[in-house]
């Protein structure tokens, strides 16, 4: 590899592949990076001024390298054939039917990518697993490749991506660690070193960890499970805070001060979302079950159950405070993305909360600075795999979607509304003119803060009835049953 320019090809130009390859290209001017995808519109967007994903700092990085050593193409086979290192970053959704439906990862895209690699390769390849996949996927991929190899040598590596959306570029520039798993054979070690050399362009050596294949694959699932578990833990405590008069922010601060626990990732919320946490935990659960470990499976399943409970608890707070019905009432929803600084809505808690409100026949008016009406309507019409969802979070009928309107302004969304739900922690929601919003709402006017970003005392002074997650309750809410 060392005597010629290294060529990298990444299959899948999504939230992971796009930003990761852009940063590799920026940091490694001596490497040519081509990102390929079967989706023509996606590649066109990557080649345009409007990138297909919103990510702070990404535009800048792409502009610096695109056309120099960073390319986006739909000519998948050509670029795979030419590459030395192939990253596979295709989607791995949860299976919706068949064996393991609702839990196991759907590896259809992965498998077809692997078969394509086997078909078109004429030289030795290092194939790098980048999308989160179940443990032992590398083994399956290895089998597909070696059984179709035509004498070509394939080395499979697992190099899970730990970036978080909204901070992807920052995370890629300064990763806590880069993890590379490979076979413990001479060929495997050489491949690990080749990938290590790529990252060593900008990541300090002591942050590049090398392990065996299974450790790398499992570490990704475990890390996401631990992170999600912290949120479910603090959210579970938030319910108890509301019942007792404790304040979850004070409790989380006090708990997080213990350096063994740490202060990060302890914000109580309406629930976690995103493409990874639920999917990866479901994966972990399925793997445990398949390996005869039902106790371990149930332990992790509980993290998702608390997350579903937190979303339904929120809906119940809204409905019960408004005299047990939101039928025909306008409810404003501020924020639909699963977190701030992204337009991504995969598994966003807003979907379940909106479906819950729609189930009670509310009229909802949604504003999110980065999510299109099209996306919202699609999300709310979509059927989720019904693995363990409470009754009132059942999918809505297509007609219910007519109860939804989307607007491009928070004041428009809240005009004439009975209640206002904050579901994403966008910075701009902290500085809205809440007096103006109050003046234009029906009375009594309610605020349900699913992200604890507004000061409940200030809003109460204006006249709102305020619900914040895990905070001492208004007298109004105390009399209302909150738990289904
Ligand atoms: C996550 C992991 O952080 C990342 O390392 C992994 O590679 C992919 O999955 P991401 O899903 O992009 O990243 O976002 P993250 O910041 O982890 O947030 C996930 C969800 O948890 C969001 O809905 C967020 O709002 C919620 N959250 C996060 C909380 O409710 N409270 C917190 O304290 C932190
Ligand atoms: C604990 C708390 O640490 C302390 O803050 C609180 O005031 C009292 O309870 P203690 O029980 O004395 O203190 O010991 P600790 O070090 O927390 O260990 C508790 C148990 O966990 C021990 O049996 C220890 O062996 C075990 N442990 C700890 C592990 O198995 N793995 C670990 O990583 C850490
Ligand atoms: P992630 O968040 O993991 O990056 P995305 O869904 O954003 O996931 O991106 C995955 C991308 O992979 C999609 O753009 C999809 O079109 C692409 N993809 C899936 N299968 C293939 C394939 N066989 N060849 C090329 N691209 C593929």
Automatic annotation (TrEMBL):
EC number: 1.1.1.22
Domain UDP-glucose/GDP-mannose dehydrogenase C-terminal positions: 332-456
Pathway(s) where this gene product acts: Nucleotide-sugar biosynthesis; UDP-alpha-D-glucuronate biosynthesis; UDP-alpha-D-glucuronate from UDP-alpha-D-glucose: step 1/1
GO CC annotation terms, alphabetical: nucleus
Active site: 276 (nucleophile)
Binding annotation for NAD(+): 12-17, 37, 42, 90-94, 131-132, 165, 276-279, 346
Gene Ontology terms: biological process: glycosaminoglycan biosynthetic process; UDP-glucuronate biosynthetic process
Catalytic activity, as annotated: UDP-alpha-D-glucose + 2 NAD(+) + H2O = UDP-alpha-D-glucuronate + 2 NADH + 3 H(+)
Keyword Acyltransferase carried by entry: no
Keyword NAD: yes
Keywords recorded for this protein, A-Z: NAD, Oxidoreductase
Broad class of enzyme this protein falls into: oxidoreductase
GO MF assignments: NAD binding; UDP-glucose 6-dehydrogenase activity
Role, per record: Involved in the biosynthesis of UDP-glucuronic acid (UDP-GlcA), providing nucleotide sugars for cell-wall polymers.
Family (UniProt): Belongs to the UDP-glucose/GDP-mannose dehydrogenase family.
Protein name, UniProt field: UDP-glucose 6-dehydrogenase
Lineage: Eukaryota, Viridiplantae, Streptophyta, Embryophyta, Tracheophyta
């Amino acid at each position: 590899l060392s005597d010629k320019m290294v060529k990298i090809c990444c299959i899948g130009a999504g939230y992971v592949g796009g930003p990761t390859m852009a940063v590799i290209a920026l940091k490694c001017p001596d490497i040519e990076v081509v990102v390929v995808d079967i989706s023509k519109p996606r590649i066109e967007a990557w080649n345009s001024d409007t990138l297909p994903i919103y990510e702070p700092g990404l535009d800048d990085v792409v502009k610096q390298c695109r056309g120099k050593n960073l390319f986006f193409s739909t000519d998948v086979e050509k670029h795979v054939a030419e590459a030395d290192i192939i990253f596979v970053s295709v989607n791995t959704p949860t299976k919706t039917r068949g064996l393991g439906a609702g839990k196991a990862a759907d590896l259809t895209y992965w498998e077809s990518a692997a078969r394509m690699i086997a078909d078109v390769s004429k030289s030795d390849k290092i194939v790098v697993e980048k999308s989160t996949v179940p443990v032992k996927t590398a083994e399956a991929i290895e089998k597909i490749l070696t059984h179709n190899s035509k004498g070509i040598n394939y080395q499979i590596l697992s190099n899970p991506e730990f970036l978080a959306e909204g901070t992807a570029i920052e995370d890629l520039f300064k990763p806590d660690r880069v993890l590379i798993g490979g076979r413990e054979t001479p060929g495997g070690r050489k491949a690990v070193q080749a990938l290590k050399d790529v990252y060593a362009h900008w990541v300090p050596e002591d942050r590049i960890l090398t392990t065996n294949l299974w450790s790398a694959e499992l570490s990704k699932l475990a890390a996401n499970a631990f992170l999600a578990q912290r949120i479910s833990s603090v959210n579970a405590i938030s319910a108890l805070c509301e019942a007792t008069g404790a304040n979850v922010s004070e409790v989380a601060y006090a708990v997080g001060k213990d350096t063994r626990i740490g202060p990060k990732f302890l914000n109580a919320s309406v629930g976690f979302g995103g493409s990874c946490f639920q999917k990866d935990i479901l994966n972990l659960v399925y793997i445990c079950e398949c390996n005869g470990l039902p106790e371990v499976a149930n332990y992790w399943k509980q993290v998702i159950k608390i997350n579903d409970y937190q979303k339904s608890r929120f809906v119940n707070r809204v409905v019960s405070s408004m005299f047990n019905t939101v039928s025909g009432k306008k409810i404003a929803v501020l924020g639909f993305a699963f977190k701030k600084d992204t337009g991504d809505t995969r598994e966003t808690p807003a979907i379940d909360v909106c479906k819950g409100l729609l189930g009670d026949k509310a009229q909802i008016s949604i504003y999110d600075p980065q999510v299109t009406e099209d996306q919202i309507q699609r999300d709310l019409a979509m059927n989720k795999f019904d693995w363990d969802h409470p009754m009132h979070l059942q999918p809505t009928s297509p007609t219910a979607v007519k109860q939804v309107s989307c607007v491009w302004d928070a004041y428009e969304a809240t005009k004439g509304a009975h209640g206002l739900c904050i579901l994403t922690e966008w910075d701009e929601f902290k500085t809205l003119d809440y007096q103006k919003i109050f003046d234009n709402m029906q009375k009594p006017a309610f605020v349900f803060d699913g992200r604890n970003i507004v000061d409940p005392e200030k809003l109460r002074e204006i006249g709102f009835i305020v619900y914040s997650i895990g905070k001492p309750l208004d007298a109004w809410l105390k009399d209302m049953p909150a738990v289904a």
